[in-house]
Amino acid sequence: MSSEAKFESTRRRLTEQQAETVDKLTTAAVAVLREQGFSGLTVRMVAAEAGVAAATAYTYFSSKSHLVAEVFWRRLNEVPREVPTDLDPVARVCRVLRDVALLVSDEPALAAASTTAILGNDPDVEHLRLRIGMDIRGRLIAALGPGHAPEVLDALEIAWSGALVRAGMGYESYEQIADRLETTAKLIMAGQK
């Protein structure tokens, strides 16, 4: 995670000690998800796993959806933003979409929980959803390069969000979704060369 993002929380800027506590909580959340799944996860359970008081955990996370959305946001932040400049725009866009689609593919419980959490209506989740969407939009803009049609960007964003929902609902694996996103991006961009 970028050093700047480590000290940024949905609710406030963090001190180093607070950032360490949030790191413990987000790490513990993944461990609890592996054991309990999203339906069994509670903020109290995560706090106990992290060795943190439940009240402390709630000062950082308003709900389990907020906590899981934060884990997703942190994972996204760890994915490098630079796309090789020697690739054409289609290959760059495919790379971005594949990287984002495979973001949580190695953690099935986190992957399933992320979709549910990110679609939640908690105000803190809404804030993270906006940040996640803006981050992915920025990555796509950079991959598309100058002179792209705004409709192409819109279509790619819709494809990505729809793919996230499909994978989260268990219709396809994240690896399959990554392949389908690549095919979709190529079709969307076919007329843009």
Automatic annotation (TrEMBL):
Residue ranges of every copy of the HTH tetR-type domain listed in the record: 19-79
Entry keyword annotation includes Transcription regulation: yes
Stored InterPro entries: DNA-bd_HTH_TetR-type_CS, Homeodomain-like_sf, HTH-type_TetR-like_transc_reg, HTH_TetR
Pfam families: TetR_N
The keyword DNA-binding is annotated on this UniProt entry: yes
Swiss-Prot/TrEMBL keywords: DNA-binding, Transcription, Transcription regulation
Top-level taxonomic group: Bacteria
DNA-binding region(s) in UniProt: 42-61
Protein name from the UniProt record: Helix-turn-helix transcriptional regulator
